[in-house]
Amino acid sequence: MPDNETASRLRKQLKEHAAIAGKIYRNLLVLMHNRDVITMDDIYAKARDSVSEESDPNRGLGRRWDGTERDAVYRLVEKYAARHLTPADIDSVVLAASKMERAQSLEEIANLQGVSFALLKQKVEDYCSLPAQETGGPTHEDRMSVRVALIRKFISDQLEYIGVARHFIRITDFPPIMRRTRGPRGGMGRIGGKAAGMVLARKVLEEHFKKRKTDPAFEIATPETWYLRSDLFQDFVQQNDLMDYYDIKYKPVAEIRKAYPLIREVFKNGQFSPYIMKELRSLLDEAGTCPLIVRSSSLLEDNFGSAFSGKYQSIYVANQGRIEERLNNLVGAIAEVYASTLGPDPILYRHERNLLDYDEQMAVMIQKVVGFRHGDYYLPAWAGVGFSRNEWRWTPRIKREDGLVRIVLGLGTRAVDRVGDDYPRMVPLGMPDLRPESSAEEVFRYAQRFADAVNLKRNRFEKIPLTELLSDTNFPDLYRMVSILDHGMVQSPVTKRVSAPVHSMAVTFDGLLNGPFPALMREILGALEQAYGRPMDLEFAFDGEKLFILQCRPQGQRAESAVAEIPSDIPEDRKIFTANRYVQSGSVLNVEYIVYIDPIDYNRLTTYDEKATVGQIVGRLNHRLEARRFILIGPGRWGSNNIELGVKVQYADIHRTLALLEMARSKGGYTPEVSFGTHFFQDLVEAGIYYLPLYPDEKENEFNEAFLRGAPNILTALLPDAAGFSDTIHVIHVPASTHGLYLHILMNADEERALAYLGEQKK
Amino acid sequence: MDTDEYNPFSIAQRQLDEAAERLGLDEGTRELLRWPMREYTFTLPVRMDDGTTRIFRGYRVQYNGSRGPTKGGLRWHPDETIDTVRALAAWMTWKTAVVDIPLGGGKGGVTCNPKELSRNEQERLARAYIRASARMIGPHTDVPAPDVYTSPQVMAWMMDEYETIRQESRPGVITGKPIALGGSHGRVDATARGGMFVAREAAAKLGIDLAGGTCAIQGFGNAGQYAALLAGEVLGLKVVAASDSHGGVYNPEGFDRKKLVDHKLFTGRLDGFPEAKPISNEELLELDCTVLFPSALENSITAVNAPNVKAKIVCELANGPTTPDADTILHEKGVFVIPDFLANAGGVTVSYFEQVQNAYNHYWPVDEVHRKLDETMTRAFAAVHEMIEIEKVHPRLAAYMVAVQRVAEACRLRGWI
Predict the structure, then answer these.
(1) Which of the residues A174, A198, B116, B383 has the least number of beta carbons within 10 Å of its own beta carbon?
(2) DSSP state of A501
(3) CB distance A395–B116 less than 8 Å?
């Protein structure tokens, strides 16, 4: 080799990277071939010539890569490199070889069973510590293999998820997440479904907005997040000897429901190891005294097709006071999230999807709550949930694919959960200022009244009347959120200065919706749907400066139901009811049982216990009528927290019904809330349960009260001890009451009409 | 049940006939008063947000302008037809006449569903309506106002379009405008306040001392809520019961009226108000109270429950709450019914004040609006009461007789009949 600077650089690098010398020679050879310095064939020919004895046509060629010939090739590579390459070329080739080597090593480690998180993290950081370079190094395919191995090991093993995520999540995205991941020493686990959705959504949107030529109207961000791996959950269960409680998942729901309060207490009293306590303490040091939300992120959660929305707990921690107190509250919240793996609703949900035998493990995501301090409270200006497909369409002008947003002032819990006593603003994103209320009074009445926030002084999550929260009109972004009722008009403020008395304010978001926000949300939801290849939903919050993405998952949906033709020749005496509002398309045929809760009789029940019992009986009927085709008809907003507003049930109490029909009666005083977009509604959608509100007192609607009240009531036959409620709860066996007919419900969203009638059994 | 019996317009037409009969109007006059003077239908092309054009059908009926420019609301409703508009325009004629403001009766509408129109589309529709009707309306010809599903904002767009066409300031072309654009103070509670003034006058004539008396309010929309607030302020009455579509509340000691209204605004319903017993709408109508304010639905007081009504005065803030049979029963029982088109004429009266202020380009403080409203309503009641005394008829017929006589007189003076 000529003795020049390139040669000495090569010697030095080969000495330092002796383990990958072969890779370095190979890369140099490829580089020189590509630069037309010398072809590979020429190098090999020269090498063979230099080592072969006299040519003997009767002897076969020697092995190309025997040691002698290889050494000859290396010497030739050194010689040509010294003559034709620069020292920088040498460095670049060595870097590429190192990267390839580390990529292979990383992939091997990631694919190994029993490897620890610490080692994997070390390997990822090793790989990422090498500077980026434009040529050489691992190929796209190499990198893809590593990404897939890492995603599978650390984020999600769901194939559908990996199939999408590998196009967006790069190896360099892992170290920041891993640095914020906590778990048992020497262990290995994943960060769970919710975290997986979050990580991917962030990457999808980063890519999307990178391609865009202009900045989005709001700066998009994600909250500071820490992850507790799924193996910490296992560790916790083992350490506290909680395995015994695991069998409960195979018991009937009623038993689980009974036992769950105890399980939750036992979990909350569980201990974490000193190492984990130290880790959590350091996490709190990093987080400071910002309020935190401890979110479930189980391995099954947010997977495609089983969104588990709202099944597991998410708990706010005010995170105020002395470190010991903060740590104690954080640990309690984590344990409570762990306990929710054995809650009745998620167990039932898993049972229905044949997921009960899966070894569900609970990872946890701890996020800084997005918001700001306002008086004693901590909350975002506004927050909510967006859906890329809108199932809430009260006019054909609203397109399903334009998406929907449910938005509230304050924490988004009021938009995500079904709250009986309040109204989030529902925004069809294609026509954002369209709303079902017209008059100023209606707009005012169907506006949000309370906000959720973290009370920093009392160290807890609270629901606050807006009259209290907004009494100081310096609330950030207020002018975009409220409208003022003044002389019979509801108008959004003309300027940022809001000077009206708080009692005249209605939260309408008219100012916000009049700007770029709806189009941006539509774009975001569209980008997510395109990346995932399926409808998506997204939780978001705005802290006065940035729009934060909090959570992202596939949207629960039923297969597109066919529009039913409503027949015009059904005799009057065979009609049971008609409906004309919020009708979705589809058919529910051959209904055998009707469970009818009479709104007026329900209203006559005077005590909370009596009303609660009605909900419990519905739950028992839901069990008793298993495998039967039945529907539920009854007053008000089912599933609401407020028993005065409707039958108090949970999803588990109604999950076997074919349809839920909520009744508004002027006398009973019940109004079905538009429940679209809530977790409760999402449950119905995922389970394929139709939802339809009935307004029997409207002149144009028919309602055969005589049949529903007068047909033989078999409640006592099914549940003898429920006899005391047979005035309120009517269970009708349709064929027995109609000489063999069945109930059919036909729904046509295009015409906004539905008809339920008695007819022959259909095939 | 004969559905016609419960159709408010049919009732109104029968009452017109009865009044005409009592007044001895000739056949030609009766026929004139049975029909609108002018009716317009408009085809309104509106560019929708998605770029398509949709055609809407609009109407304007100028029922009778003998006493002055026709006046009446614009309704945006999916079921709107020329028939309903025509019927309501007739009502406006009697209403403006009974309170003796120099206006005729009119009404308009567009067949549309505002719940399916964006704000921009609503604005374009409002402007299209004015472009189509600008030649037929104006401060001195026909003056629209808000009605079902049309708001002060819609009035503002319409006024702007009209002024753009005319190229001059003409705020009086429309009433019910936002205050900032020439609307009048005192409009929001005008209907309820006018009702209070005539109830006060009725009590005075009947020798009833209202101070410390009680009232019940059926229906708690805009008029009902203001009735609750003003019953104490204007009449000194305790509000002991109120109801809405969800049910009612009762407290014999009387409610804190402000809190009751706030509760309704806040929760959207009355039930659940503290320190109150639940009461049904039916029970409320039969309460023993000084004044009953039906403020919600048509046909609430029927031949069935009228015998049980114990209020001394029924002040009809709603349109058509009492059926004709019930009217007779109440009259025979000695219950004094202040008929709807007198009791709720406060709204159109303040609309008239708005026109006057627009014409003068000078605006009154709210106290002056209240004072003038009081004068107008008091004078109107006096005329009706005089008719009751002279003709010995029940108040509704008396009110019709006053109104019809005034319109007939104007028609004759003009030489129309």
Answers:
(1) B116
(2) -
(3) yes
Asked if residue B25 is part of any domain, the answer here is no
pLDDT tens digits, B297-329? 677 898 889 999 999 999 999 988 888 889 999
For chain B, which residues lie within 8 Å of any Cβ of chain A, measuring from their own Cβ?
49, 113-120, 149, 151-153, 178-179, 183, 187-188, 221-222, 245-247, 262, 265-269, 271-272, 280
Q: Which residues of chain A have pLDDT under 50?
A: 557-560, 674, 676-677
Q: Please report which confidence band the pLDDT of residue B6 belongs to, taking 50, 70 and 90 as the band edges.
A: very low
* Whole-number pLDDT of residue B5: 45
B317, B225 contact by CB (below 8 A)? no
Nearest-CA distance B389 → chain A (Å): 39
pLDDT of residue A325: 94
Beta strands in A270-412 (DSSP E): 292-298, 314-317, 362-368, 372-374, 377-379, 382-387, 404-409
Could you read off the pLDDT of A197-249 as tens digits, one per residue? 999 999 999 999 999 878 888 999 999 999 999 999 999 999 999 888 877 88
What the block records as the tokens of B245 is: 């579509």
Beta bridge partners of A542: A382, A547
Classify A427 as helix, strand or coil.
strand
Alpha carbons A325 and A320: distance in angstroms, whole number = 8
Between CA A697 and CA A385, with CA A419 as vertex, the angle to 5 degrees is 110
Number of domains within chain B: 2
Reduced to 3 states (helix: H, G, I; strand: E, B; else coil), residue B302 is: coil
Last residue of a domain, one of B131, B166, B181: B181
Q: Mean pLDDT across the stretch B13-41? A: 91
Give me B408's structure tokens. 């007939």
Interatomic CA distance for residues B106 and B101, integer angstroms = 14
Residues 248-307 (A) with a CB less than 8 A from some CB of B: none
Residue B246 pLDDT greater than 70, yes or no:
no
Distances (CA, A) of B356 to B53, B155, B180, B181, B364: 38, 17, 16, 14, 10
Q: In what order do the strands lie in the sheet with A505-507?
A: A489-491, A482-486, A505-507
Instruction: Report the alpha-carbon angle A32-A34-A40, nearest 5.
Output: 65
CB B30 within 8 A of CB B20: yes
Per-residue model confidence (pLDDT) at position A310: 67
Domain, as residue range, for B138: 36-95+103-181
Tell me, what DSSP letter sits at residue A316? E
| Full set of structural domains in chain A with CATH | 5-85 (no CATH), 180-368 (3.30.1490.20), 375-554 (3.30.470.20), 572-759 (no CATH)
Q: Is A503 close to B149, i.e. CB distance below 8 A?
A: no
The pLDDT confidence band at residue B287, using thresholds 50, 70 and 90, is: very high
Catalytic residue IDs of B: 107
Whether residue B235 is found in the same domain as residue B288: yes
Q: Are A638 and A654 in contact (CB under 8 A)?
A: yes
3-state per-residue secondary structure call for A624-681: HCCCCCEEEEEEECCCCCCHHHECCCCHHHHCCCCEEEEECECCCCECCCCCCCCHHH
Which of A431, A489, A669 comes nearest B247 by C-beta? A669
* B265–A445 CB contact, under 8 Å: yes
Mean pLDDT of B94-120: 94
Q: Per the structure block, which two tokens stand in for A524? A: 């975001």
For residue B61, pLDDT beyond 90: yes
Q: Is the pLDDT of residue B383 over 80?
A: yes
Q: What is the pLDDT at residue B7?
A: 57
Residue A44 confidence (pLDDT)? 86
Residue of B116, B151, B280 lying closest to A440 (CB–CB): B151
Whether A449 sits inside 8 A of B183 (CB atoms) is no
| B210 and B314, same domain (yes or no) | yes
Highest mean pLDDT among A483-492, B55-64, B83-92, B218-227: B55-64
